[in-house]
Recover the amino acids of this structure.
């Protein structure tokens, strides 16, 4: 993930907020976007700031931690890390699918472990969101028919890749096709010049090139209809840019 994890801290104890800020300040990919000391402020801050995660106390003035969550629409709810001095609320935290449950007094390792769970949740969410977008786009276009012509396959892949912003990936596939075809042609021409003795080796080399092109075409056909393949390509695309 390239973006910072935007985090809100909600606790009525100043020392607890300070302790969380101290630890989180040393985690490079986490940003503290705000602090609140009661539940009512927390609801307003979550709606206004839309943080990725909230370190949320349970017993607070105004609204308790569970009431804060209940006040939010499902789409408004961030990832929750409960911070409390009471272990009796653990079952309730589990029911709302909290990422972690930190008992006071917590230490730096506890906080870092909670942030790791937040990263995992965010990555899963991003993958699901990408899959939904890919499925939506795939439904808007007819599935590609099986093709045997490698150049035609590469052209269709470029069109698909353009729709998903996979320009670097499409260019790389096109270059692979072109290089493989040139090498195969050169091998055949060279085998003719070298006579019968060179035919076997060059034919094998040409076969490798043909296999490379066929493998690329198979992947392109998968890319045309598979959300997982497209998501994988999205993750790799920067390497081909």
């Amino acid at each position: 993930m390239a973006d910072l994890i935007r985090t809100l801290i909600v606790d009525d104890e100043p020392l607890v907020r300070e302790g969380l800020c101290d630890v989180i300040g040393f985690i490079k990919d986490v940003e503290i976007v705000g602090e609140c000391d009661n539940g009512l402020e927390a609801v307003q801050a979550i709606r206004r700031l839309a943080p990725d995660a909230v370190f949320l106390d349970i017993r607070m003035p105004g609204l308790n931690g569970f009431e804060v969550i209940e006040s939010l629409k499902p789409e408004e709810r961030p990832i929750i890390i409960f911070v409390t001095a009471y272990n009796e609320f653990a079952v309730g935290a589990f029911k709302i699918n909290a990422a972690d449950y930190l008992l006071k007094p917590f230490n730096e390792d506890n906080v870092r472990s909670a942030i790791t769970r937040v990263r995992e949740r965010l990555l899963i969410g991003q993958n699901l969101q990408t899959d939904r977008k890919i499925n939506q786009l795939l439904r808007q276009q007819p599935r590609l028919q099986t093709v045997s012509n490698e150049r035609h396959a590469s052209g269709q892949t470029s069109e698909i890749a353009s729709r998903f912003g996979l320009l670097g990936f499409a260019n790389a596939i096109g270059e692979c096709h072109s290089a493989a075809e040139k090498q195969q042609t050169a091998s055949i021409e060279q085998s003719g010049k070298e006579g019968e003795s060179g035919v076997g080796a060059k034919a094998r080399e040409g076969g490798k090139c043909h296999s490379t092109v066929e493998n690329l075409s198979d992947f392109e056909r998968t890319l045309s209809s598979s959300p997982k393949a497209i998501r994988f390509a999205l993750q790799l695309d920067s390497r081909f840019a």
